[in-house]
Amino acid sequence: MILLSVGTLAYAESTTPDSSWNFNESLQQIITLFSRLWVVLAMGAGKLMSNTFVYGEFMNFDVYLWQMWNISKNFANLAI
To answer: Are 23 and 14 in contact, with CB atoms under 8 Å apart?
Structure first.
């Protein structure tokens, strides 16, 4: 996770300047892509964490959750 969140890293340069594929640049581009991608995914997850989605109100699960909570509450009150 630390590797993905770092924007720029220092690498040792290769001794062969004629190579067409540079591993360091490719790795840097992949790390940059992942560091931007996880921010977008985290923002999307944060937007979906509303009470409507968390409690399932859009699928009418909130009624069943409330009933289960009410039964659990009643059992706890009886145990006291």
So the answer is: yes
**pLDDT score at 70:** 95
Residue type, 28: Q
Token reading at 60? 């009418």
Mean pLDDT of 32-45: 91
Q: Which residue has the tokens 């640049």?
A: 25
Residue 75 — pLDDT band, cuts 50, 70, 90? Answer: very high
Cα-only R_g, the chain: 25
b/e per residue, 41-65, with b = 16+ CB within 10 A? Answer: eeeeeeeeeeeeeeeeeeeeeeeee
